[in-house]
Amino acid sequence: MNHELSDVEKLRVLFDYWLRHNIEHIDENERWLQKVRDVKLNNVANELEAVVNLSKEVNHHIKHARDHLDRDTNYTKEEKGRSAETITEKVPHQHIEFHPVGIILTPYKDQAPRQPQPDAEGDFRIIVDDRWADALYRLDEFKYICVFFHLHRSQMEVPTRVFPRGRTDVQVGVFASRSPARPNPIGYSVVGVKKIVKNTIYISGIDVFDGTPLIDIKPYIGSLDCKNDANSGWIDRLDVKEN
Q: Does one domain contain both 17 and 109?
C-alpha cells in the first residue's frame, strides 16, 4: 500500500486535528473560566474569556478554510468517507497529545531517587483534578497502584543504547532498561496507597520531582501484575544489580 500523502491530503488531516485540538482547549479553558468567576477574580475572568472567544474564532476560520479546500479541490463526500476509513493506514506518524489529570507532590525539589522508596520520609500525595475526582471511586480498596507520569524535567538526549547505572562495561537497548531517557518521557512507578480523601491520594514514597504531571492511575492487581516466573534479564548476569 502506498503510504504517501499529497500536501492537500496532509492539510485536510491537519485541519481536522487542529479543530479537535482547539475544541479540547476551549472546553478546558471554559471550565477554568467558571472556576475563576466563582472566586470573583473578575480581571482574570475577562482575559480568560477573551482567550476562549479567540479560540472559537480560530476554529471558525479553520472550518471555513477546510470547506474552501474541499470545494476548490472537488473533494467529494465519497472521497471523504474513504479517507476516513483508511486515514490510520495512510498516516505513518501521528501527533499524540496527553493532558495531565492531576499533579504529584513530593519532598524532592532538585534530586529524586531512581526507584520508589516505600519508607521514605516526607509528604507524598497525588492530587487529581476535580473533574476526575469521581474516577477514584473504590480505588482505596487496593493496596498498591500503578502511577504513570510525565518526566517533565528530563532534558536528556535519547540514545538507542545506554549504560546501566554505575557500569561502563555493559550496554543494553534503552527499551531493555529503566533509564529515564525515553523516546516518550513517560514514567511508571508502583506505590502503596495510605488513604484517599476526596481528590487526594496519600501514597508511599515515589521517585519523582515535586510537581510532576500525572498522566494516569491504574490499580496494581496481584493476580495480573505479579508474574511468578519473571526474571531480571541481563541484570542477573551483572555483579552489581541496576538500581
A: no
125 vs 128, 140, 146, 149, 201, CA distance in Å?
10, 14, 14, 13, 6
Indicate the number of domains in the chain.
2
Q: Are 59 and 26 in contact (CB under 8 A)?
A: yes
* Shared domain check, 42 and 153: no
Residues paired with 145 in a beta bridge: 191, 219
Residue 172's φ and ψ, nearest 5 degrees, are -140, 160
Residue-level pLDDT, tens digit, the chain, 243 residues: 344 557 787 787 788 878 877 888 888 888 889 989 999 999 999 999 999 999 999 989 998 898 888 888 876 555 554 444 444 444 445 567 788 999 999 999 988 888 899 999 999 999 999 999 999 999 999 999 999 999 988 766 788 888 887 787 888 998 998 888 888 889 999 999 999 999 999 999 999 999 999 999 999 999 999 988 888 898 888 765 444
In a domain, 116, yes or no: yes
Backbone angles phi, psi at 43, to 5 degrees: -65, -40
User: Nearest 5 degrees, angle CA 103-CA 107-CA 110?
Assistant: 95
Question: Is 231 part of a structural domain of the chain?
Answer: no
**Residue 162 vs residues 76, 116, 144, 158, 177: alpha-carbon distances, Å:** 51, 21, 30, 9, 8
Pick the closest to residue 172 from 113, 231, 235 (CA basis).
235
* Whether the predicted model's global pTM rises above the 0.90 cut: no
Q: Please give the residue range of the domain that contains residue 15.
A: 7-90
Give the span between the Cα atoms of 135 and 32, in whole angstroms.
Answer: 19
Element (H, E) at 222: helix 222-225
